[in-house]
């Protein structure tokens, strides 16, 4: 198995990049405007912020490297009261909240010719991700508890993506009216999902919640925590994914 990891910003993958750099045979190069760090088990692709950058980066990566699964990583904003700072979400699907082709489409988020508004992630990949994260959740809860005095959760939810930074309560409420099943919002996951599905490659996302649904907890301290502490948690998860794939290969499966 070769895992493709897509990340918008360096800060969200600081620790993962250090891990990949230390692996034998790792090469780094530019592919268009995207930076790729390539190993026979992991490819880290820094896309830049937004759907266009993410789609371009994943396309370049999948066209150049044989990838068995794609993972979008980083931060996400909460759309529902049940999600708070430090919570971990694994994407069960993704929607494009800024896509609206009405009246030639039936509903917001619908692409012409598509049978569903939601890009569904791979169930087996989601199950694997959640299982790995769950093993480390007690440690992560302790870190979040020390910093924000709350118990972090691990959940599976739909991610809403669009080319705008959604921080206000009003904008979040607007997204929730059209996509009430979406739990968090970001700027890349749906684009990663659409390209991965076009290439018939399993995908999911691992996102750390950086604010609350009412946006009261947005701030430099929260963002720094999610970038730096979250980077360690994400790196540990990816390392375990790689370890599992290595074990499977050595076992002949």
From TrEMBL:
Pathway membership, UniProt: Amino-acid biosynthesis; L-methionine biosynthesis via salvage pathway; S-methyl-5-thio-alpha-D-ribose 1-phosphate from S-methyl-5'-thioadenosine (hydrolase route): step 1/2
- Class of enzymatic activity (EC top level): hydrolase
Sorted alphabetically, the keyword list is: Amino-acid biosynthesis, Hydrolase, Methionine biosynthesis
Task: State whether keyword Hydrolase applies.
Answer: yes
Pfam families assigned to the protein according to its UniProt record, in alphabetical order: PNP_UDP_1 (PF01048)
Tell me which residues make up the Nucleoside phosphorylase domain: 2-229
**Can you tell me which residues the record assigns to a coiled coil?**
none
Q: Name one GO molecular function term.
A: adenosylhomocysteine nucleosidase activity
Q: Is the Hydrolase keyword given for this protein?
A: yes
For biological process, the GO terms are: L-methionine salvage from methylthioadenosine; L-methionine salvage from S-adenosylmethionine; nucleoside catabolic process
GO cellular component entries: cytosol
EC number(s) of the enzyme? Answer: 3.2.2.9
* UniProt cross-references to PANTHER family, sorted A to Z: 5'-METHYLTHIOADENOSINE/S-ADENOSYLHOMOCYSTEINE NUCLEOSIDASE, 5'-METHYLTHIOADENOSINE_S-ADENOSYLHOMOCYSTEINE NUCLEOSIDASE
Identify this protein by name: adenosylhomocysteine nucleosidase
- Native organism: Ferrithrix thermotolerans DSM 19514
Lineage, opening ranks: Bacteria, Bacillati, Actinomycetota, Acidimicrobiia, Acidimicrobiales
